[in-house]
Request: fold
Amino acid sequence: MRPLLFTVLLLHASPALPTAIHVWTDSNGVQHFSDRPADRQASHPQALRPAPSPGPSQARSETPAQRAAAEQRRFDETLRRDAVREEQARRLRCQRLETQRELLEQRPRLRTTDAAGTHRTLAEAERQALLDDTRNQLRVSCAR
Reply:
């Protein structure tokens, strides 16, 4: 009960925002604005309108240094993403080369399929050439 009573008192005690502005002109021709009507003058209330939100023409323009810094951040982020993609591609390529090396080392008789779809067994010299090439690619591309 006390929190409710406190809230009601707080809201009642806080200054209320005027819902209208009263405008009148005095005998000297000076225009007055108030949240209350004039005592002896004829005033006409005007409804308050919310302030317009800043549009593109009212938005703050960036300084050249701020634009350059933002452009540098975008460029750095692009470089970082590209580096991550390249590292992922390199790891995948190294995994495939490692699997190929293991196959060539463990199986002396490997069968391959040519472009026409014909199966044939690799000769020992072909297998050794592929194994040497695979080891070389691993040494150059996947050195740890």
